[in-house]
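Look at one record.

>
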Amino acid sequence: MKILAPFELEGNIMRSLGTDWMLITCGTKEKYNTMTASWGGMGILWNKSVVFTFIRPQRYTYEFMENNEYFSLSFYDQSWARALKFCGTNSGRDVNKAKVTGLVPVFDEKAPYFEQANLVVICRKLYAQDMSTDSIIDEELMQYYHGDDAHRLYVGEMVRVLVKDEHEWMVRGQQS
């Protein structure tokens, strides 16, 4: 993997976050969890390069996010769709997702990620806040919530960005 500065990333971040496959992973070598996600963003906040993501309190990954300072966001191509669908529909409380899917965990950073990822963003938590359905202005958005299951928003500083050499199209100045 090649190390990049956050401003060297190019490509379609909206597609990467919204339609490509992303895993949120946190924990330690001894105990970690991952989940598939498609809600989030990247930008600048407090003069820092940041990501934001959302996790429901019912998710097993929520416990790891609450108890660890760092987490990773990792992105995959469509060849990993089946594995990431499994990670999004099964709980780490019940199954070892890496073992079932063939994803290989890497622990050389402050947060675990998987060697099959094309892009990895290691993040340090800066902020967390529970969302409230009472604050939703557009009533159409209530379709995403049933009962007491509003997400927690996490803002993380991008402390390291890793990209596979064969995906250098995401690096500033490269042609896609």
About this structure: The longest strand covers residues 119-130.
